[in-house]
Amino acid sequence: MRKYSPSTRKRMGDLAHGMRIQTSVVANATYLDQVQYEIFNVYGRILVKQLYCEAITVFGAQGTTLLFNATFTVPAVAVQPMTGASAALTSLAQGNRAVYVGGAVASAPVITGGGGVSDVICQDPQIIGSATIAGVMGVGTIGILTAAASQLSGTCQFVMYWAPMEDGSYVTAIL
User: Fold this and answer.
1) What Rg value do the Cα atoms of the chain yield, rounded?
2) What distance in Å separates the CA atoms of residue 33 and residue 130, rounded to the nearest whole number?
3) pTM of the model as a whole
4) One digit per residue, pLDDT tens: the chain, 175 residues?
């Protein structure tokens, strides 16, 4: 059986699944409170291959919904939805996820059925970002907007797998 070094395995994963970026673990009461928050900076154009919100600890019993969106400062583009609103994240168990499925903009993130097991993946990635204009790379963010109710307890983390669509494109975590 072949043995690959950790760096070779990481490179293979980047090529097959996209580069991984994640936020810090955040308190739901702070960031899932019916306000827009930016979670990732996007420079240039990228292909979003996977994006999800994972419950690190059990969510509160509030019926919070979540959607992912994008905003750009270069060129100036107002908030654009990437998804529709998810089903309620009521008492989301540790390890469950609200998963972006890609495709049509109105497609809602799907809540996974079991902690630590995602039975849903993105089948139709979206291109996010803008072309270079007069030598200036497009700049924007991917954010979240929650509605219906504010979460009062629990913690979560946002994870994204992405691939660059032009030279110099990259993503950084905001939270």
Assistant:
1) 16
2) 29
3) 0.93
4) 788 888 877 777 777 778 999 999 999 999 999 999 999 999 999 999 999 999 999 999 999 999 999 999 888 889 999 999 999 999 999 999 999 999 888 899 999 977 778 888 888 999 998 766 677 788 999 999 999 999 999 999 999 999 999 888 999 999 9
